[in-house]
Amino acid sequence: MFDLFRSRDKIVRIMLGGLLLVVALSMLTYLVPSYNLGGGGSDQVVAEIGKEAITLPEVQQIVQMNMRGRQMPAELMPHYIPQFISSMVDERALAFEAKRLGFKVSDQDLAAGIRQTLPQLWQDGKFAGNEAYASMLAQQNLTIPQFEDDMARQLLVTKMRNVAMEGIVVTPQEIEQEYKKRNDKVKIQYVKITGDKLRSEVQVTPDDLRKYYDANKIAYQIPEKRDFGILIVEQAKLEQTIQPTEANLLRLYNDNKDSYRMPERVDVRHILLKTDAKDPKSDAAVKAKADDLVKQLRKPSANFAEMAKKYSEDPGSKDKGGEYDGVVHGQMVPEFDKAAFSLKVGEISEPIKTTYGYHILQVQKHEQAQLKPFNDVKAALEAEYKKQQVSDLMQQLSDKVQAALTKDPQHPEQVATAMGVQYVKAENIGPGDPLPQVGVNKDFQDAIGGLKKGEVSQAVVVPGNKIVMAVCTGDTPAHPAGFDEVQSKVHDALFKDKLNKLIDQKATALVDKTHANGGDLEAAAKSMGLEVKTSDAVDHAGAIEGLGSAGMFPDAFTKPVGSIIGPSGIGADAKVVCKVVEKIPADLTGLASQRAAIRDQIKGQKEQLRGALFEEGVREALTKEGKIKVHQDVIDRLIASYHG
Question: What's the whole-model pTM score?
Answer without folding.
Answer: 0.48
